[in-house]
Design goal:
With about 280 residues, this protein is mainly α. The chain has a domain of about 150 residues: Serine Threonine Protein Phosphatase 5, Tetratricopeptide repeat. Helices cover about 75% and strands about 0% of the residues. The chain has 14 helices and no strands. Helix 7 runs antiparallel to helix 8 and helix 12 runs antiparallel to helix 13. The protein starts with a helix and ends in a 9-residue tail after the last helix.
Length: about 280
């Protein structure tokens, strides 16, 4: 459990930095409240992850059936830290036991509930490699998308209503690819409809990131780069909430570059799709 404790400590340090930066100008009482919440969450997490020597010894002496029963009970009670201890013991001590594949599937879910993306992805990829034709392989691909999508979310950004779509979108892109793979490979999967909905959310998130990049180029007066990036939004993420802004950036960039014909073409598209846009009245 030492590695988990270290990860939680690093999380606490990062949260301290985050609160110092983002709440620097905010109300002091709000700052203290948020910091207190972080400390409380950190303490609870440490308590949840800790285990006594007696418990560890009990786990080592337990039979496969007893270990698995304990793990299932812990999961049903929502104690995923304890469940992981039993499941990891099963996985390492009885790799060919009667519950081997179900143990791996339960571990994937438990890591997801603990927000342990690294362990979750490692176990997912191992399961896919060892069980490519398993009857629940569609679920595993779905879970891969969920784990990556979870990695792209940051709870405290949502709590404080901070827009961070400018952050590195790699895991969001990975999640999008995971769901896309699930839908294309297993279109009749019961997880496909939800995966499709999540892809729409991720598509908007990725498009907004590209818009942020394009707007940065505008600040740098890199008009050609800005138009190219905005055009990529139209081509790669059509129909997203960023479409109108992409057209605006393209029209502005082409105007700055002296590409009047291209600018007029963009304005024509804008007139059809966004007739109330302010750029059309200039």
């Amino acid at each position: 459990m030492l590695s988990v404790t270290i990860e939680l400590f690093l999380f606490y340090i990062e949260m301290e930095k985050f609160l110092t930066i983002t709440l620097k100008e905010s109300n002091l009482s709000m700052h203290k409240f948020a910091k207190g919440a972080v400390v409380g969450l950190f303490s609870l997490a440490i308590a949840a992850c800790s285990s006594s020597p007696e418990e560890d010894l009990k786990v080592k002496k337990s039979s496969p059936d007893i270990l698995y029963s304990q793990a299932r009970t812990s999961m049903e009670l929502g104690n995923f830290s304890k469940a992981v201890r039993s499941l990891e013991a099963l996985d390492s001590r009885y790799p060919f036991g009667p519950h081997k594949t179900q143990v791996q599937l339960d571990l994937i879910f438990a890591y997801y509930k603990l927000d342990d993306a690294a362990s979750g992805i490692a176990n997912i990829d191992r399961f896919i490699r060892l069980n490519p034709t398993h009857k629940d392989i569609d679920y595993v691909y779905y879970m891969r998308g969920l784990v990556n999508m979870q990695s792209d979310n940051y709870m405290f950004h949502d709590m404080l209503d901070i827009d961070r779509t400018d952050r590195d979108p790699k895991v969001a892109q990975d999640a999008f690819n995971d769901f896309d793979r699930l839908i294309k490979s297993y279109p009749k999967s019961k997880y496909a409809p939800d995966a499709a909905k999540r892809m729409l959310y991720l598509k908007n998130r990725l498009a907004k990131y590209s818009i942020n990049v394009a707007e940065y180029y505008i600040k740098m007066n890199a008009w050609s780069a800005a138009s190219t990036r905005a055009q990529s939004v139209m081509e790669t993420y059509p129909g997203t909430t960023s479409t109108e802004r992409a057209l605006e950036i393209m029209a502005e960039a082409y105007g700055e570059l002296g590409q009047e014909k291209l600018r007029e073409n963009v304005l024509s598209v804008m007139k059809i799709n966004f007739p109330n846009n302010k750029m059309l009245s200039r």
